[in-house]
Amino acid sequence: MSYSIDFRSKVIFTMEEEGLIIRETAKQFRIGSASVLGWINQIKPKASSTRQRKIDKSELIKDVEQNNPDVYQKERAERFDVSQKAI
User: Fold this and answer.
1) DSSP secondary structure, 36-78, as one string
2) How far apart, in whole angstroms, are the C-alpha atoms of residue 3 and residue 7?
3) Single pTM value for the model
4) Are 35 and 43 in contact (CB under 8 A)?
5) Spatial separation of the C-alpha atoms in residues 25 and 14, rounded to whole Å
6) Which of 1, 2, 42, 61 is the most exposed place for a label (fewest CB within 10 A)?
7) 15 touches 25 (CB < 8 A)
8) What is the pLDDT of residues 26-49, one digit of tens each?
9) Are 15 and 35 in contact (CB under 8 A)?
10) Separation between Cα atoms, residue 27 and residue 31, nearest integer Å
11) pLDDT, tens digit (0-9, with 9 covering 90-100), for 56-65
12) Packed helices 33-41 and 5-18: angle between N→C axes, nearest 10 degrees
């Protein structure tokens, strides 16, 4: 679960206005100090990856049989537009 940008802004604003350190701010809002530290550097959440994580096993088998079976995992992953771990 991700915290909203409004909440993140409120936490950072309160920390700066009251002159609190990261630990005090985290304790006041009952969140982790690592979260507060991360929000100081980047308030917006990171964009999620749109890359496909799974592939159809039958397509993979066809690709191995039709194309060179000695192709590296990295090359095959690029062909399917997936991560290397998905192969």
Assistant:
1) HHHHHH--SPPPPP-SB----HHHHHHHHHHS-TT--HHHHHH
2) 7
3) 0.55
4) no
5) 8
6) 1
7) yes
8) 999 999 999 999 999 888 887 766
9) no
10) 7
11) 888 888 888 8
12) 90
Q: In this predicted model, which residue has the larger pLDDT, 29 or 71?
A: 29
For the chain, domain boundaries: 5-41, 57-86
The one-letter amino acid code at 36 reads V
Angle (deg, nearest 10), helices 5-18 and 22-29: 130
Residue pair 15/27 in contact by the 8 Å Cβ criterion: no
Please list, residue by residue across 9-40, b when 16 or more beta carbons sit within 10 angstroms of its beta carbon and e when fewer do. eebeeebeeeebebeebbeebebeeebbeebe
